[in-house]
Amino acid sequence: MTQKPADLTSLQRAFLYPRFSTEATTDLGLEIISDIKKNGPIPFSDYMDRCLYHPKFGYYSRPEAVTVSREGDFITSVSVGPLFGKLLALRLHRFWIANESPSHFTILELGAHDGSLASDLIHAAAQIDPVFAQALSYYISEPLPARRKLLKGKLGGKATILGSPDELRCKIGALIANEVLDALPLPLFFFSQSNWHEILVSVEKNSLAWSLRPTETFLSGNYPEAYLTEGSPNFQKLLSPLSECFEKALFLWIDYGLDSDSLYHPSRSAGTLRCYRKQRSDAHPLDHPGEQDITADVNFTAVEQAATQLGLKAYPTMNQSRYLTHCAKDWLLQQPSPQEIRQFQTLTHPSQFGNRFYALELTKGNPQRAFP
Questions:
Q1: Residues near 351 by Cβ (< 8 Å), separated by ≥ 6?
Q2: Cα–Cα 20 to 30 A to 212, which of 117, 137, 191, 260?
Q3: HEC per residue, the chain
Q4: 111: Cβ–Cβ under 8 A, 6 or more apart, which residues?
Q5: Domains present along the chain, CATH in parentheses
């Protein structure tokens, strides 16, 4: 049987927001267009990787640009105030005590951005327990040279900035990654004419455009025509070198996401891919290459499966409201300031950060988890 071609018109309509412009583009956009003309269409995952991590024009490669703040493109839990770092410090302090309060305890942070979470956590550790603070060695893994330079300038001697986690080996510690998994480049898939297709980025009339190529069945089941969704990044590739950094460790991932059944429900026909620019999420992924954030919900089921295959132990994912409340249970009895209470409410309220974000803990080496 001859396979019917996919409907490109329905693909264009599947994205929630229309193009801002099909003519004007950025320096990165011009570079991508030139490369596609020479070498042909590229998978969306390659396009997303270049938009976010191009060494010169990538969204995260411009430390001078204000991106994560109320004045930037979006806010995170760190933007709410220093309480988020304090609650994570309380969580790590409990883990440290449960594992016999070692004299050397390593924290490795991924996706540190401007170093605000590192500063908040290190400051809070000194307030919580000076002995704990003395035991801490804080490391940040940052592959982008420009951002490494910014972090070194901001944090000084508070943290060691690494180009790769391969440079770190320690006996016991913890990894922290806040909103890292949602920014990993991933493929896009489209169901049309009873077949699955991978979405590519191509060029039409000197402008970025969509195209498709046939792919093996991505999901089994009954999906509607013009169903758009994301595949998962290679989580095992990310987790494998990180797991080698520690003999014993707690891994903490905080992000927005879903389990596989929810993420790939037939009713979720437009997927979760979105872009953020100037506190708005109504941007098209082919607009403003390198000048807007591109993100998608994390498939926590896939993360857990990748971790288990590497010998890590995964614990039930819980929403941020429940997780941070467990972290804060002793602190809440100590009469926090009104400002801290307001921050806590923002971080845990169901209509703000509480139900949108989730926390996933993994362990390596059978440490005492000490949670809740």
A1: none
A2: 260
A3: CCCCCCCHHHHHHHCCCCCCCCCCCCHHHHHHHHHHHHHCCEEHHHHHHHHHHCCCCCHHHCCCCCCECCCCCECCHHHHCCHHHHHHHHHHHHHHHHCCCCCCEEEEEECCCCCHHHHHHHHHHHHHCHHHHHHEEEEEECCCHHHHHHHHHHHHHHCEEECCHHHCCEEEEEEEEECCHHHCCCCEEEEECCEEEEEEEEEECCEEEEEEEECCCCCCCCCCCCEEEECCCCHHHHHHHHHCCEEEEEEEEEEEEECHHHHCCCCCCCCCCEEEECCECCCCCCCCCCCCEEECCEEHHHHHHHHHHCCCEECCCEEHHHHHHHHCCCHHHHCCCHHHHHHHHHHHCCCCCCCCEEEEEEEECCCCCCCC
A4: 177, 178, 179, 180, 183
A5: 61-185+241-268+287-364 (3.40.50.12710)
351 contacts 78 by C-beta, under 8 angstroms: no
Local confidence pLDDT in tens for the 372 residues of the chain:
446 677 778 888 888 777 776 556 899 999 999 999 999 999 999 999 999 999 999 999 887 665 555 555 668 899 999 999 999 999 999 999 999 999 999 999 999 999 999 999 999 999 999 999 999 999 999 999 989 999 999 998 999 999 999 989 999 999 999 999 999 999 999 999 999 999 999 999 899 999 999 998 889 999 999 999 999 999 999 999 999 999 999 999 999 999 999 999 999 999 999 998 876 777 899 999 999 999 999 999 999 999 999 999 999 999 999 999 999 999 999 999 999 999 999 999 998 999 999 999 999 999 999 998
